[in-house]
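Appendix B. Raw example, untouched.
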Amino acid sequence: MALGNFSQVTEFILLGLSDTRELQVLFFTFFLLAYAMVLLGNLLVIVTVRTDPKLSSPMYLLLCNLSFIDICCTSVISPRMLVDLLSQRKTIAFEDCIAQLFFLHFVGASEMFLLTVMAYDRYTAVCKPLRYTAIMSQQVCWVLVSACWAGGFIHSTVQMLLIVQLPFCGPNTIDNYFCDVPPVIQLACTDIYVTEWLMASNSGLISLVCFLVLVTSYMFILVTVRVHFTEGHWKVLSTCASHMMVVTLFFVPCIFIYLRPFSTFPSDKHISVIYTVFSPVMNPLIYTLRNSEVKASMWKLWK
């Protein structure tokens, strides 16, 4: 018996990204390299920030936490996906599926909140520079980071509780390479009208609201930079451009997938690759290649 009181399904079958053996080998090579880049790139960012006293500002503290979240997010998905790509039968136990879903949304929602906090940090640095050190102190930063993790935990707990009370009696085939909310609840043996609306309002609206807050903060930043043409403001604007690239890679796919109740598309699993694999790979590259201070610290660490 699975977690739900009326569930008879003890495992799910994952169809994966492709059923062609040649493509599976190609995907395995690509995702193995991507996972290695995520681990090495984000660990390098964390070590660089933690070892260089010059990188002790709130922006780099938040960046360090973003790298840690990226490692966690990819580690929830990639190891099992790599094993499944080499397996003939891709199955996952009901309890493991719920656990994967829980931790994915835990770290995913935490990253959404953290990216929003990072946008607020840049807004404060540009629009309120004289009060920046008072507003974004180390203590405030740690409180905001803790709030991001707490918000992610609450969001994921709500998702899990909504799913485990559903009865699953078959079919048990998921057209994806990991367990996610939309394809899993479609397999429930009951009317999921209310559940789908709750899921969309929980995941989809969180993504949309955070994205709108981010866009609004950048609009204020652009207006401020347009008025004050100073070298310092252009430097901050360059950092914000990097941040916006990360935001686009992460939020747009999430909004597309989670803000649509009552429908799942075959393309959803390919779009999911963007925020589960591609975005964590690009984050350290975007932040290091466009940030002279981080590059200088990495070179110093290398020497």
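End of appendix B.
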